[in-house]
Each structure stands twice: as structure tokens, then as C-alpha cells.
Design brief:
Layout: E1 2-5, H1 13-19, E2 23-26, H2 37-46, E3 50-53, E4 72-75, H3 82-95, E5 105-108, E6 113-116, H4 121-124
Parallel strand pairs: 1-2, 1-3, 3-4, 4-5
Antiparallel strand pairs: 5-6
Length: about 130
């Protein structure tokens, strides 16, 4: 999967995700740190990258409707320290079939994963 990490996530995720077979770049690597969210989002979409962020500005399902983008993972942890974020994202990418998340809006907490898709659940393989 082609991924873009927002500037609010640890850069160490690049190496972790690479070891799991994902091509990852960051907002910071592109020189977009501090830029407005619209520009960051546009850059992720132009590059056809699945965007991972903690920024609540990306939480509006109407604005970021499933099927209208390359994919969005919004991670919301109660205590979002670097190590907690690294562990949670690494675990997700090791245990979930994240390739199914392309084009989806995914909300992740410590214990839950909520996936919104434009496709029927059975088409994504979520229902058996």
C-alpha cells in the first residue's frame, strides 16, 4: 500500500511500515509541515496515497466520504504518545488486511476499528 503519514505521527513508522511491505512517505518529507489541511490532503490524493493522521479536521465523513479518495485512517488514542502510536499502528498493519481499506474511511481507537466503505461489506470480505 502507498501511504502518507501526517506530521503528527512518529517518523519511525516509515521503517516499520516498510518492513511490512508498504511504501510510506510523510508530510514533512514533502516540505508540507505547517501547511493547511486542504493542501496536505490534496498532496496525498494526487499521489494516490492512503493518509494516516490524528488530526480531527479529517473526521468529517461527509467531506471525506468513502470511495472519493485513496483512503483515510484517523487514529484516536486516549494517550497518544509516540510509543502508543507506534504500537497501535504497527499492530494494525500486522494483524488486519489493510489492503481492503483502500478508499475507506477508517477510525481506530485503542480497542476498536470502524471501517466505512462505499462498497457493500460482503464485497470487502467483512461478512462471511
Amino acid at each position: 500500500m502507498r501511504i502518507k503519514l501526517d506530521e503528527n505521527l512518529p517518523a519511525r513508522l516509515i521503517g516499520i511500515l516498510a518492513l511490512l511491505g508498504h511504501e510510506t512517505d510523510t508530510v514533512s518529507q514533502e516540505g508540507l509541515s505547517g501547511y493547511n489541511d486542504d493542501l496536505v490532503w490534496k498532496a496525498a490524493q494526487v499521489a494516490n496515497r492512503f493518509f494516516i493522521t490524528q488530526d480531527l479536521d479529517f473526521s468529517d465523513l461527509r467531506r471525506f466520504a468513502p470511495g472519493t479518495h485513496a483512503g483515510l485512517l484517523l487514529i484516536r488514542l486516549r494517550e497518544p504518545g509516540r510509543n502508543a502510536l507506534l504500537r497501535r499502528i504497527q499492530t494494525l498493519f500486522q494483524t488486519e488486511v489493510v489492503g481492503r481499506w483502500k478508499g475507506c474511511f477508517v477510525l481506530v481507537t485503542e480497542h476498536k476499528i470502524r471501517i466505512r466503505s462505499a462498497k457493500p461489506e460482503e464485497e470487502l470480505g467483512f461478512l462471511k
